[in-house]
Amino acid sequence: MSDLAFDLISEKFDFLSILNDHPGNRIYQRKIQDLSQRYASIRKTKGDGNCFYRALGFSYLETLIGNDRAEINRFKDIVLKSKNELTAAGLEDHEFGNLFKHFFSVIKLVENGGSVSSLLHAFNDERRSDSIVQYLRLLTAAFLKNRAEFFQHFVDDGMDIKDFCAQEVEPMAMECDHLQITALSQALAVRLQVEYVDDTDTAVNHHKFPEHTSPSVYMLFTRQHYNILYSAS
């Protein structure tokens, strides 16, 4: 298979291979070396503004491969019920039905014994992968709008939550921030830890979604981009 086939989500690489991404940046190099004590591998995602949604969808489903059937059923039930979030937010089935089918098809792939390779192929099929991203964006927006009274306080500049979703969440290629991560991780009940590498000469900062939980998915955030991490343990 050509490299082009993996342009949305890559194969696994040794974590320290990303030292070459910014060879002259001393702070970046130090922070990556520090993180290498905890992470062994990385998958890169395409920097198209959809990286968080694509990475979360793939990485959590990857953890379910070979997992206990009860955990797969639990997640399948959450995803089936997620359609109720969208309808409660005012969407009709014809607006998201096909997108949902694409997302549910990769869950069925895992349920039916699919491999990491087959899941990776599915997420690198642009039409299928983008449909999954679009569904996750709509779910994130619906989750926020259905809890507008709470989330409104976290939107900058006093923007209405509905306008925020229309401008920052629902359109493809719009980058993801803390608020969207909080909403989607709660909507799917996925426990996530993000490692934040920036140019400040401090220790690496990380955040768990939700706080005080044991994560099942890990991501690296650097320069407005999310990649998938794999724990050394």
Features:
alpha+beta, 3 helical TM bundles of succinate and fumarate reductases, 50% helix, globular
Describe this structure in words.
The protein has 9 helices and 6 strands. With 233 residues, the protein is α+β, with helices and mostly antiparallel strands. It has one domain (3-201, 212-231): 3 helical TM bundles of succinate and fumarate reductases (Up-down Bundle), CATH 1.20.1300.20. Strands 1-2-6-5-3-4 form a 6-stranded mixed beta sheet, sandwiched between helices. The model has no long low-confidence stretch (mean pLDDT 95).
Topology:
Layout: E1 9-14, H1 26-35, E2 39-45, H2 51-64, H3 69-88, H4 93-111, H5 116-123, H6 126-146, H7 148-151, H8 161-169, H9 178-188, E3 192-197, E4 205-209, E5 217-222, E6 226-231
Parallel strand pairs: 3-5
Antiparallel strand pairs: 1-2, 2-6, 3-4, 5-6
Helix content: 40-55%
Q: How many discrete structural domains?
A: 1
Overall pLDDT score: 95
Query: What is the overall shape?
Result: globular
Strand order of the largest sheet: 1-2-6-5-3-4
- How many helices does DSSP assign? 9
CATH superfamily: Peptidase C65 Otubain, subdomain 2
Q: Give the biggest sheet.
A: 6 strands, mixed
What is the strand tally? 6
CATH architecture: Up-down Bundle
The helix/strand order is EHEHHHHHHHHEEEE
Whole-angstrom Rg = 18 Å
Which CATH C-level class is it? Mainly Alpha
Uncertain runs with pLDDT below 50, 5 residues or more?
Answer: none
Strand content: 15-25%
- First-to-last CA distance: 30 Å
Secondary structure category: alpha+beta
At CATH level 3, the topology is 3 helical TM bundles of succinate and fumarate reductases
